[in-house]
Specification:
The complex is a heterodimer of chains A (117) and B (164). Chain A is mainly alpha-helical. Chain A has 2 domains: 68 residues, Arc Repressor Mutant, subunit A, CATH 1.10.10.10; 35 residues. Chain A contains 5 helices and 3 strands, in the order H-H-E-H-H-E-E-H. In chain A, a hairpin with a 2-residue loop joins strand 2 and strand 3. Chain A is elongated and about 75 Å long. Chain B is built from 3 helices and 8 strands. With 164 residues, chain B is of the alpha+beta class. Chain B has an 8-stranded antiparallel sheet with strand order 1-2-8-7-6-5-4-3, with helices on one face. The chains are: A mainly alpha (117), B alpha+beta (164). At the A-B interface, helix 5 of A face strand 2, helix 1, helix 2 and helix 3 of B.
Chain lengths: 117, 164
């Protein structure tokens, strides 16, 4: 898959470990900035900066409720990452299915002649 | 993760440089080890049904090398090689891995750690692939994309043949 070399790219947005931590927190539910700050023990300016990047790529949505701005995860925006890894995963799944067949043949053979351990 | 022998592999990206592949097998771990380290057996599964393995060399000793080459029905040759760094039979295998299909392949070598844990006669297999850079890790995952493409082409070919 060709990946755009831009900062407005969800791949780049989640490349930063702190931003992945923020996504993990938001995956557990909607939070105001201070909620994220409290859970991660990071400074508020830092969290706000990361949230801005995540919003720019659509990984995080925000809504206003009263005087609070609440942030939540937008899993749909992370789909390109999922798709990207999925093909790699599929290769391994196919490989392991073939390995299942080999293992299935090794077992009765071993029980039969006791040649292996 | 589903506890079935036909379950899918689970792939996660624990850090920017890592790929972790996990799968459970309905077999004791010494058999998984055997299937993983015996060339005649590796030849039967490593190709993931996407081609034929033309080379499967395994020199199973610390400092020994390995090389796997597969040719897809479309004629695409995909090669990997590396060197064994740590060998604990039936338990743990550490080796380097170079994907030959990318520029500066050696520079992007990964370190692979296979671990096998046995629980009630079943084996939990983990392959941790550690790259030096995120770019290397990403190129490695993209190597699966070629396979994925080939997969689609293979299916297309099957469909075409069935129409004859």
């Amino acid at each position: 898959m060709a990946r755009a070399a831009t900062t407005a790219d969800v791949f780049n947005a989640v490349a930063e470990p702190r931003r992945r931590q923020i996504l993990d927190v938001l995956a557990r539910g909607e939070r105001p900035v201070n909620g994220v700050v409290a859970e991660l023990g990071l400074g508020q300016p830092q969290v706000s900066k990361h949230l801005r990047v995540l919003r720019e790529v659509g990984a995080v949505d925000v809504r206003t409720e009263g005087r609070q701005r609440l942030y939540r995860l937008n899993g749909h925006a992370l789909k390109p990452i999922h798709d990207w890894v999925r093909d790699y995963e599929r290769t391994w799944s196919k490989r392991f299915e073939a390995l299942d067949v080999v293992l299935g043949e090794l077992q009765p053979k071993e029980a039969g002649d006791g040649s292996d351990e | 993760m589903a506890a079935t022998s036909s379950g899918t592999a689970t792939v996660t990206l624990p850090t920017d440089e890592q790929i972790l592949v996990t799968r459970e097998f309905d077999a004791p771990r010494h058999l998984v080890w055997k299937a993983w380290t015996t060339p005649e057996l590796v030849r039967r599964w490593w190709h993931a049904n996407r081609g034929e393995m033309t080379i499967c060399d395994i020199d199973l000793r610390v400092g020994g090398g390995w090389r796997y080459v597969m040719v897809t029905p479309g004629g695409l040759e995909v090669g990997f090689h590396g060197e064994y760094r740590e060998i604990v039979p039936n338990e743990r295998l550490v080796s380097t891995e170079v994907y030959e299909g990318i520029p500066d392949a050696e520079e992007h070598a990964a370190l692979d750690t296979l671990t096998l844990a046995e629980v009630d006669g079943r084996t939990i297999l983990r392959v941790l692939v550690e790259h030096r850079t995120r770019e290397g890790r990403d190129l490695h995952i993209d190597s699966g994309m070629e396979d994925g493409m080939q997969d689609a082409l293979d299916l297309l070919e099957l469909a075409a043949v069935s129409l004859v």
